[in-house]
Structures are given as structure tokens and as C-alpha cells.
């Protein structure tokens, strides 16, 4: 079971909201809205997606990584490396 399974509905709702923001951006471009207004909305969509990613990462650490560390061994090291790499990707973006 995925670490986010308990909050799957909430995650889906958040992603639909981000999807709506992106569609709104497309409309703004189609309607030739002011550049700064579009950039403001890009910032809001980016923040919403980052918030989702952090929430998912937190659940991954609390469930998947914690479970693997309890088992120990190579699986634990692999999960920790995987989480570390995911954090690095988030920080770079």
C-alpha cells in the first residue's frame, strides 16, 4: 500500500485544483491578459504544486522510509537514498 493511500482523496482534490489553475493560465494567455497577472497566477500554481509535493514527501518518509528503516539492511539504505534524491530534485526545482 502506498504511503499516501489514507489521504488519496485529498491529494486528488489538490491536484484537480492545480489542474484548474493551469487551465486558468491557458485562458489568460488566450485572452491576452496582462503579463504580470499571468506571472502572479504562475506563482500561485507553482506554490500549490510544491505544497502537494512536500505533503507527499512527508507521507513517504513517515510510511515507506520509516517502514524500511525498521526492517534495516539494504532496503533501508535504498529507501533513504531514494528519499534524499527526491528531496534534492525538489530543492533544485
How much of the sequence lies in strands comes to under 5%
Number-wise, the strands total: 0
SSE succession: HHH
Count of alpha and pi helical runs: 3
Rounded to the nearest angstrom, the radius of gyration is 17 Å
What is the residue-mean pLDDT, rounded to a whole number?
A: 94
Overall geometry: elongated
* Share in helix: over 70%
Distance between the termini: 28 Å
Report the major sheet: none
Q: Unreliable segments (pLDDT under 50, ≥5 consecutive)?
A: none
The structure class reads: mainly alpha
Question: How would you explain this protein's 3D organization?
Answer:
86% of the residues lie in helices and 0% in strands. The relative contact order is 0.12. The protein has helices at residues 8-30, 35-71, 73-92. Helix 1 packs antiparallel against helix 2 (35-71). By secondary structure, the protein is an all-alpha fold. The mean pLDDT is 94.
List the helices and strands and how they pair.
Elements: H1 8-30, H2 35-71, H3 73-92
Helix pairs in contact: 1-2, 2-3
Task: Describe this protein with a few key phrases.
93 residues; mainly alpha; 0% strand
Compact overview of the structure:
By secondary structure, the chain is an all-alpha fold. The chain is about 85% helix and about 0% strand.
